[in-house]
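Incident log, support desk, overnight shift.

02:14 A customer reports that sequence design results differ from what the structure should imply. Their input is reproduced verbatim below. On-call engineer (initials T.W.) acknowledged and began investigating.
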């Protein structure tokens, strides 16, 4: 294995070895604390344009299988690990992680002091970085390129703040995920039909709805409100996705069209941020974000604490206590409350409309990878759709009655 170097925009460098494809890559460097789930992380479209550092020291131990990917390709812009597995071992493994990274042209670096790197990012905040190896670190004459030159390349990369990226990862054509019965066979008469706007959707999300007997129509990010209505949905879902929610204008207009029609709405992660913005709240960039599978979140409706999967660098800026009039358009969407909070740092992790059938969470109930504590939220969405069909129901009702509160 040849030498590689990781260069941060503040000039700090980490020497290592080339891992995966050799060459050059730039992006925003972020760390993920999950001890498991590297396949789900690599294939999560929300990581588009981000270089991911794994804090778990051994990566690749179980190789790569065909069941765990969350999309059809690896999306991370680069991959930083401490100690890659020399050999993978799992009955499900089809190939090694290294082979997959090479095949998909993902530039990585190993043998990095990932603890020192993570501490640096926690203190200074996430920033742009580059991984350079092979021809990207030597001049044609054979001499090493100076670090200053590499830092300049990193500084030329776009910032994550202000980036509108959902269109780069969404589908071009809509598709349908069939509703399933309890045995996993197709259900002839689905309990509900959902229009799911793909802003970078993870495949497990429509799956979780389908498992509950919901037929899911996955739509491109560019869909108009007419496209959404054409599905005749019982509910609308906005997915996770990459980029800065303050840059998403079109999607927020569509979402307001959904709220104006009182169609039940559920959003996850980017979908939560867009819901927050549609209601008139701001969003802001966290210093280093939440990425991993062990974040404690309290559901304020039930008082229960759940251990949850996260991948977000932005958050909604809404008042933590009490009910608030949603600021947009002089309170057009009525009252809202923060329904979930991260117990590590009090970041808003969920929003609930009190006068509309709409709610969202900042974290990942689809649990891929991650604990399944938050699966009840899909039941809550189904409850909201079924109660609202009878002409009543707000998100708060669905949270305190029926299956959702069980
Ligand atoms: N997983 C997501 O949906 C991420 C949302 C947004 N891109 C963020 O970083 O906060």
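02:41 Re-run completed on a clean worker. Output:
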């Amino acid at each position: 294995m040849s030498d590689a170097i990781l260069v941060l925009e503040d000039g700090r460098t980490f020497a290592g070895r080339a891992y995966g494809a050799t060459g050059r890559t730039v992006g925003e460097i972020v760390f993920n604390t999950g001890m498991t789930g590297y396949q789900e992380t690599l294939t999560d479209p929300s990581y588009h344009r981000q270089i991911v550092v794994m804090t778990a020291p051994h990566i690749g131990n179980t190789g790569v299988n065909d069941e765990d990917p969350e999309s059809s390709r690896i999306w991370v812009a680069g991959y930083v690990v401490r100690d890659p597995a020399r050999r993978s071992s799992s009955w499900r493994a089809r190939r090694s992680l290294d082979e997959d990274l090479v095949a998909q042209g993902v530039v990585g670096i190993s043998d990095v002091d990932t603890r020192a790197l993570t501490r640096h990012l926690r203190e200074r905040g996430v920033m742009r970085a580059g991984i350079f190896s092979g021809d990207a670190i030597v001049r044609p004459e054979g001499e090493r390129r100076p670090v200053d030159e590499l830092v300049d390349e990193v500084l030329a990369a776009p910032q994550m703040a202000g980036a509108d990226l959902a269109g780069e990862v969404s589908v071009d054509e809509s598709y349908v995920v069939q509703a399933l019965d309890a045995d996993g066979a197709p259900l002839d008469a689905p309990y509900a039909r959902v229009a799911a706007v793909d802003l970078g959707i993870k495949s497990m999300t429509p799956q979780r709805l389908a498992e509950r007997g919901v037929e899911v129509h996955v739509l491109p990010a560019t869909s108009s409100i007419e496209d959404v209505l054409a599905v005749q949905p019982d509910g609308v879902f906005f997915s996770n996705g990459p980029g800065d929610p303050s840059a998403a204008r079109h999607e927020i207009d569509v979402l307001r069209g959904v709220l104006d029609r009182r169609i039940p709405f559920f959003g996850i992660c980017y979908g939560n941020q867009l819901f927050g913005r549609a209601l008139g709240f701001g969003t802001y960039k966290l210093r280093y974000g939440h990425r991993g599978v062990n974040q404690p979140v309290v559901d304020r409706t039930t008082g229960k604490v759940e251990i949850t999967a996260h991948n977000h660098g932005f958050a909604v800026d809404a008042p933590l206590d009490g009910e608030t009039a949603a600021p947009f358009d002089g309170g057009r969407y009525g009252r809202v409350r923060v329904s979930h909070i991260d117990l590590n740092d009090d970041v808003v992790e969920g929003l609930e409309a009190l006068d509309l059938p709409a709610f969202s969470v900042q974290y990942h109930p689809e649990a891929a990878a991650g604990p399944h504590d938050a699966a009840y939220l899909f039941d809550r969405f189904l409850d909201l759709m079924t109660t609202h069909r009878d002409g009543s129901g707000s998100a708060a009702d669905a949270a305190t009655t029926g299956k959702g509160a069980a």
